[in-house]
Amino acid sequence: MKSWVSVFVILSIFMLISCQSGDKVLITEKIQYDVNIKSPGTDYDWWIQNLVGPDREQLVGEILEGAKSGKYQCWDYYNESLSPLDIRSILSDTMILSIVDNNPPYETYDTTIIKTIELKDIQRLRFLERWEREPGSLQIEKTVYGIGPVALTFDPEGNERWYPLFWIYVDDEFIATLNKN
Prior knowledge:
two-stranded antiparallel ribbon, about 40% strand
């Protein structure tokens, strides 16, 4: 009886090792996409494109505070390093608008509008990832290279637009490739 148990254990170990020995299949080295973290519609179930308010605020708060304090190294979209001062400048949007008075003599005057990007303005996160899958299955493994907050802002014409603020790269091997360029 012991010999059957031993054979069974050895065969089980062999099968387990052989199943894991296959190399992963690379789907893409880099993929970038936005994820809504605040639901764009009230008719969705609460969990669709949504993180619960306190969880969302904690995550976005950590990203913003870590970026402003220098806890996290930040990068722009050209992979240039950003300082905490650069981040504070990015989070404060200044526009100078020329406005024509509606009353005679219809003079034009300039006005400065300063809009600070706040926690509530970050409704999306942008991810940069590597995707691989197990051979013979659709089980996908994702490696997150970076996370970037995306804010809802307005352009000088008053149109809403999504604006990526900065990257925080979280994968040391990926960061090493940036430093080689």
